[in-house]
Amino acid sequence: MTFATLQxxxxxxxxxxxxxxxxxVTVIGGGLMGAGIxxxxxxxxxxxxxxxxxxxxxxxxxxxxxxxxxxxxKKKFADKPEAGQEFAIVENLKTKQELFSxxxxxxxxxxxxxxxxxxxxxxxxxxxxxxxxxxxGLHFFNPVPMMKLVEVIKxxxxxxxxxxxxxxxxxxxxxxxxxxxxxxxxxxxxxLVPYLxxxxxxxxxxxxxxxxxxxxxxxxxxxxxGPFELHxxxxxxxxxxxxxGWNKMEPENPLFAPSPLLNKLVAEGKLGxxxxxxxxxxx
Length: 283
Ligand SMILES: NC(=O)c1ccc[n+]([C@@H]2O[C@H](COP(=O)([O-])OP(=O)(O)OC[C@H]3O[C@@H](n4cnc5c(N)ncnc54)[C@H](O)[C@@H]3O)[C@@H](O)[C@H]2O)c1
Prior knowledge:
With about 280 residues, this protein is of the alpha/beta class.
């Protein structure tokens, strides 16, 4: 997919008054993450332009955002129902480099670029542009409207001003920012993905059924979901692409070793909740 496909644009605005440094936001990719980021940015008073490759996808994003807002309104106004009436694209380095390189040529000088990548080095993505000081990472979590954390990634070239602006932007969105270095997986995925892979390996060795491992981690460690449930929720293809990428970077690291079972399920198209089957079946 190339920059030429960025032709369908939908604009969303909110009337809320704002004073923060970032006022206009462009989100590239209106899938799972992009739609969520658009929703929280618009709800906190930013002008948001959402870009995707077809009008149909944008319609789906808009319907998804509407559904999410309805659920939030229902919760928020449970007692009073009448009252309730520049960042995602696929996880591929070359695609992201092509996109940011093209945007770099047309975006105003003061525009800050941020990538929501889960696993690619921000430095590698930024290297396709001439604005290394105005490039950082903003890593949101799924579902974006519910999850409070944003990892703000500062590369060795990100300026302090850019970093402070991204931290401020995260706070304006109502999120809790944490500072991360540009290292694989930042904080959360660096700890979470090896744990998920270890759960798979434990199961592959025949040392526990997936059901028992899930129950054990929920009741024994107090986790809200077991590792196999979380695999299905995140998407097996997403986890495979993360682990394959890290394995390529550090082939000797046993924590980053691929899993035959994960590879098999992905090859069979069993990607988790989104396809109706992963480790478990969904109706
Ligand atoms: N899913 C997660 O939990 C999660 C969490 C944090 C970060 N991320 C990262 O966010 C990014 C998006 O993930 P997602 O789960 O939302 O994927 P997704 O497949 O739901 O959405 C990607 C969207 O990008 C669009 N797109 C692809 N190429 C494009 C182009 N050239 N121009 C415009 N739009 C284009 C697609 O049409 C699609 O709508 C990935 O880099 C992923 O690693 C995902």
